Amino acid sequence: MYPLGIYLHIPFCLSKCPYCDFYSLPYDEELVNQYVSQLIRAIADAPAGGQPVDSIYFGGGTPVLLGERLLSVLQAVYQHFDVSSDCEITLEANPAAMTFETLRKLHQGGFNRISMGVQSASDSELQRLGRRHNFAQAVESVQLAQSAGFENISVDLMLGTPQQTSASVDHFIQTFASLGVQHISGYLLKIEPGTPFARQQIQNICPDEDQSADLYLHTVDQMLQHGYAQYEISNFAKPGFESRHNLKYWRCQQYLGIGPAAHSFLDGKRFFFPRDLSGFLSAPNVWSLCVPDGSGGDLEEVLMLRLRLCEGVRLSMLRQQFELDTSALEKRAAFLQKQGLVYFDGDLLCLTAQGFLISNSLIVDLLECC
Questions:
Q1: Residues 6 or more apart from 134 whose CB is under 8 A from it?
Q2: pTM for this structure?
């Protein structure tokens, strides 16, 4: 059994970005204090208490806004779980919402990885994305984190944004590679229903499908040239700096999510908290709020998640775990390899960079052979 991952959702932001569909609310000091207290109670009452944990992830929202209050939450995890000595402890942060002193104290208190939502190297692109920082501030924030002691830093790059060019992508990668950043996530912009971007029909000024595909493949190439190996559709890392926490999701390993909108996979079952801060704050025991979301780890889910990873999936594992006849899958994989969409050696099956561009349809295609 692999160690557990713990995700703690911090649903507070200074402002809402127009593309964001994550559950978050405006920062409010009184609500934040109530929330921290309730999170600590939730950790004390959590299922799987006492189990080994080797990754803790504070996501949001903008967790860094809570400053040193996060340390009391982290301490509660240590008190109620068996946290490994090399545990990866990640803090999501916004370049417009951090100070050196906050970062220094959080690092001294146990945080050892920071993930920053930079998104672009172009100030005009950042403004269009509703970000509160400019690129110079983002660079300074990385340098502040390094000065505070962080040696595992990730930055987010958004691809396919309005009027984006390959030149701004190159500038982003070159800048953070020269700063020694260890991890870069490169996500294609998705226009989520109900967001301001959807209402503004922002897709009309975004790169079209072919242009976005070219930007993605260009990004993959540039990442490799700068020493970032791709290990998942949207994630690139220096050797040894892959996100341990996110790998748990893609490898169908267990994780416990705490907070409104947080999801869990525990003992073969999936469940989640409603997107309701007031309900979470008022519940005598928050775990009574959890909504069952079915079982997890079936063949469809394993294939779908594993094929997001460059390490792919071994058909021998599928045969053993699911008693699956893989002959039709092998035949289809061999055909797709001739199209340049997958790599297949008779056992190992993984998507190529070209395959990642149409991963959803490819996975449906492969599942039809199971």
A1: 123, 126
A2: 0.96
